[in-house]
Amino acid sequence: MSSYHPLSEAEAIEIARSIREVFPTGEELVSREIGDGNLNLVFHIAQPATGRSLIVKQALPYAKVVGESWPLSLDRARIESEALIKQGELAPGLAPRVYKADHELALTVMEDLSDHVIMRRGLIEGGHYPKFAGHISEFLARTLFFTSDLGMNQQDKKRLVQSYINPDLCKITEDLIFDHPYYDAETNNIEDSIRDAAEAIWRDEALLFEVAHLREKFLTRAQALLHGDLHTGSIFVTPESTKVIDPEFAYFGPMGFDVGAVIGNLLLNFAGQEHWSADDVSRRDRRSELLATIRDVWTLFEGKFRRLWDEHGVDRVARAAGYQDDYMLRLLRDTIGFAGAKTVRRVYGLAHVADLDTIPDAAARERAQRLALAIGTGLIRRNRQAESIEDVILIAEGAL
Amino acid sequence: MSSYHPLSEAEAIEIARSIREVFPTGEELVSREIGDGNLNLVFHIAQPATGRSLIVKQALPYAKVVGESWPLSLDRARIESEALIKQGELAPGLAPRVYKADHELALTVMEDLSDHVIMRRGLIEGGHYPKFAGHISEFLARTLFFTSDLGMNQQDKKRLVQSYINPDLCKITEDLIFDHPYYDAETNNIEDSIRDAAEAIWRDEALLFEVAHLREKFLTRAQALLHGDLHTGSIFVTPESTKVIDPEFAYFGPMGFDVGAVIGNLLLNFAGQEHWSADDVSRRDRRSELLATIRDVWTLFEGKFRRLWDEHGVDRVARAAGYQDDYMLRLLRDTIGFAGAKTVRRVYGLAHVADLDTIPDAAARERAQRLALAIGTGLIRRNRQAESIEDVILIAEGAL
């Protein structure tokens, strides 16, 4: 018999009050529900007298997207809280602190990051995050390496795989990223102006072949514990700080899916720069900055991952001559393929991104969408032949 | 508090008596313990008055190999009984019937196959099994296809992955197949006469690179529910019948590991034919027959797997043009690599095979061992470039 029920604000306050490391004194707490109500309740609990605050996040037993509602396992709240804790241990300072988790109530009490901004919003508003590439490459290298067979006991890893089996959330990815965008699915959300581009993708046999490969990797490759949804809407930033949130899609999958999610979402913002007029120098500057960030994310990630392998590798056999180089090249190729898939689905799949959708001028928006599709499909087509991160830069620049 | 304890013969008889479908009448039952005592107790329970019988197999909480003893999870008995039941459902008639399983007592009550012979023994004694390739290809195609993302609901598959997490038994494979044979490990059991050949393998960088790839696949590729130990000692045969037993190593891994196990063990018998004098026509005849069987196993398997895919495929995306051909080629390559790894470890790793070890003449035995190593390393070196099963035949013939 489960005690689960959606919390009232009074209950959320009561739970928050029990977190003595945040609220050691008894002054009044006030609650504000700040979730979008589609998947979770999110209570911001503050103590005006002290300026202290925290977040109570509770999973709802369903998902609402574009009016549709379908049941969704509450077990994702356990997975999210366990992933947050593990990522925080492996990449200190790069995930919110977890104060308490209650699996029965499907809730996590965690650090309030209101002083940060969601990175997607920050990028759209022209923010600069010079430390982002350093931070996210650290997060990726450490969380992926230390949950893989390269960096942890291989029997313990199997038990960890077991506790992160996440069918409901993986299903969302399998449908919305690796299936629906590649045929005329009802869930697609295609602006009339680019329908011809979507239809061209549905007929592109070479592309569909590559998508089948990427889907297979997502379904079968238990390489490391992924965040599983690492787009710029799952990252809180300031110019000084980066915090990765919302790992409810966490499961053991191919590492390149997480690295590719970051790069794909930077490329969506790159495409979105069509909102500037063509002769505005800001368009070119922003794009250069984004491409430099992409290059840094991969280059720093690769260097850190290799260093961890050299210093903390647990697998004797993985020291075979040439194997690390080969592994990193395959990881780059996966990254590029998944970056492409992440890009395409955001243009006309079920869930769009504000980087494109908020461009008010229809012609500019169409150009941005076509650009994103050209980049995304270019990456997917290229992925298994890619040789370096410069391939991504060339594809993005070539699409302009 | 577990009720587990090793059964007495009296207790085994009592359990057997409860299986009314085998023993509907009350005549006396007699028990004979026929296990090797290293991993399991195996009671053969017969009713002399009716000629009926069954097997009670109980896991022991340790493994004994060459005098060493180490603890081993009893959960393997649950995995074994569940795998037997599932394989029996998916490949009717090709696995022993399970009458009862008791996870607390770590026991499985199953069909008595005393009218069959262990295939390794049968091959060594010159038996012919003309239906074997048809049967084992059916077993492989159906058990692998219908537990993969191609043939079953992809969310249910994830839950099945979860219930077959099998760290202890996978560890044995990871050590004894994919690690210890590739350096001077204490567990290796190397005849002095071929020590130079083992040492050459330890220095062979190209080979070690391929082994690292195969090990990675074993560790990370959750493709389908494998038997996990499908050598000819896990197969009971008669000229008319094939029954696959002992799936205690079952877990979700790369399909080629099971197919390769069958082929590798046929190749070990091929190498073992050195026991004939060089001018005996039987040597050549047996080898031709074995190579024909290997060709049939792959060819029939591939045909059946493709037919299942065409008729029962659940994944829309996997219908992309060219994908099935590419998938089958990769599966062949994995099969060849794993067949090679399975062959090498049986020559000088911890656990040898009678196909080689029972050759009384030392010179013939040495020739057989060197032949097995030449074939095994040839397959490993070739695996990722192989184009057809004929590559295996050519490597085997070329090694003579």
Automatic annotation (TrEMBL), chains A, B:
Originating species: Cohnella zeiphila
Residues annotated as domain Aminoglycoside phosphotransferase: 32-266
GO MF entry, a single one: S-methyl-5-thioribose kinase activity
Biological function: Catalyzes the phosphorylation of methylthioribose into methylthioribose-1-phosphate.
Chain sites annotated for binding ATP: N40, K57, E111, D112, L113, D246, P247, E248
Domain of life: Bacteria
Binding site for substrate: D229, R345
UniProt pathway annotation: Amino-acid biosynthesis; L-methionine biosynthesis via salvage pathway; S-methyl-5-thio-alpha-D-ribose 1-phosphate from S-methyl-5'-thioadenosine (hydrolase route): step 2/2
Protein EC: 2.7.1.100
Catalytically driven reaction(s): 5-(methylsulfanyl)-D-ribose + ATP = 5-(methylsulfanyl)-alpha-D-ribose 1-phosphate + ADP + H(+)
Assembly: Homodimer.
Gene Ontology BP term (one): L-methionine salvage from methylthioadenosine
Protein name listed in UniProt: Methylthioribose kinase
Keywords carried by this UniProt record: Amino-acid biosynthesis, ATP-binding, Kinase, Methionine biosynthesis, Nucleotide-binding, Transferase
InterPro entries: Aminoglycoside_PTrfase (IPR002575), Kinase-like_dom_sf (IPR011009), Methylthioribose_kinase (IPR009212)
Protein's UniProt keywords contain Kinase: yes
Enzyme class: transferase
Recorded family membership: Belongs to the methylthioribose kinase family.
